[in-house]
Amino acid sequence: MSALAALCRLRPSALVVATAALLPLTVGAATEASATTPDDRTATAPGAAAATERVLKDDVTLTAGQGGVTRVRETIVYQFAGNKGFRRTFVTRAHDSVTEDRVYKLGNLRASSPDGGPTKVSSSGEGTRTVVRVTGRGNLTGARTVVLEYDLRGAIALLGSLEELRWPAVGGWSVPVTEARATVSGGAPIRNVNCFAGPLQSTIGCTQFYTNHTHTEGIYSQQQMLPGEYLTVVAGFPPGTTGGKALYERRRNVATAFSVNAVTGTALLGLLVLLGGGLAALYLLRGRDARVVGKKAAEGDHAPVSGSEFEPPDGVRPGQIGTLIDEQADVIDVTATIVDLAVRGYLLIEEEDRAVTGRLDWTLRRLDRPQVDLLPYERILLDALLSNPDGSARDAVKLSALGGTFATRLAQVRSAMYDDVVKQGWFARRPDTVRSRWTIAGIALTLLGIAGTVALALTTEWALAGLAVIIAGAALAYGGQYMPAKTARGATVLAHTIGFRAFLERGVLPEGDASRQRIALYSRFLPYAVVFDVVAKWSETVKDAGQQGADNLYWYEGPAEWDLSKFAESMRTFTLTTSGSISQYRGM
Asked: Is it the case that residue 404 has pLDDT exceeding 50?
């Protein structure tokens, strides 16, 4: 027969007695199984320590004083099993809102023992908790009494018309607590008391709580607490009893790191001043260009034709104009220079017969003409076009065959074009160098701002100051593209160029000119039309030249059955194809 069956056959009275006898053993086994090992356990007999260590009694006295300081005296009777000490965990920080934590401060920690228990106290913060360790010199066994005292700030707060003291007076143990008791006093009648037992946020009442007959003390007790459970006591005092207030600290999170305060507000204001100063600087530098251009524009707005003579505005060449206008040596500027070299007799452009070759292509052929009047960038470009990869000269090259060393040489052309506009006195410094310096400075400032923002966000509430630096750096890098400034001479040339562009956009040559003269003038203007992107409009001036017996230009030859009536489309396609070939090989 099983023990359970035998027990069931007992009389009710005997059953009660047997059950009462077994209950302590059951509770003891469950309690021992739930006990955890303290950090300060020695290496000897860890299993035995886990099974027998416990707090036999924890008696806490809390005295609320002026300034909201609560003096706590805690008498602990601890059952040791070979450890040097024990530890207790206090919850000293609670998240009150997204940006603030309510904090509780423990100070003046000290311990004593009347029977040889541990008395060395140390504390450390671990997130929202403070761990207090009390240790001795040697391993201890048996019950020892330790008196732990500390000052508590932040436990008293105004709640309605009362000053409320709320504190987990007992708990945070890693071992069971057999008996817990707390007493609260404050030198004034206590209006109300309450207490809770269990997890920290528990709303379950404790075993017993009441006030003494004079209502000057609150008394609380709880039996059999498990590891990690708390006894939270609450006492309400009349207003003004202690003058205590809850303590709050800003939380270290994204919301607080990027908050607006005196430091970040000053940084943002400084950013606005910096950006305003940058705009003023741009106006002084770029605005000077605009003022001179506006003043000289009327002087340049006329057709640069005098009888049968043609002169570009101020003798400026197409590639120079393109670099002057947008301060960059673009693909279109190089393409216009190629057309200009052909118009001036250094190259012959031959359009391949698409019906024969199966594709649209052109041949650039060298013409025998001295290079005495070529500018440095034009000479570099001509050599790049008509040189083999090994550096030897060639008489012709197909547009589709450009490649190899051409990309490197073309980068030299671009550099020479920047040098030329400085040599002409249109810029004090190379535009690309000015842009690069400002852009590099802006990128460096942005990276510094990113690093600073991360560091400030992790350690302070001034991350917006770092963000201001990032914005300033990005603005500097962007604004650096507009920092190259023309000299007064460069702005004057630009003003005449604007007038010249207006003339080309009108697409009208002086009346009365012979067809051949009109074609010559058209050719001379065409490279500038390429720069200004008005080839289609400018080609309207010779659309009827094929009907008047002109089927080719001296610098451009089309295939059979080709005449000038088709030239506008041929030139549009040529410029697009040339720009595409250049950009393909040099990554522009």
From this structure: yes
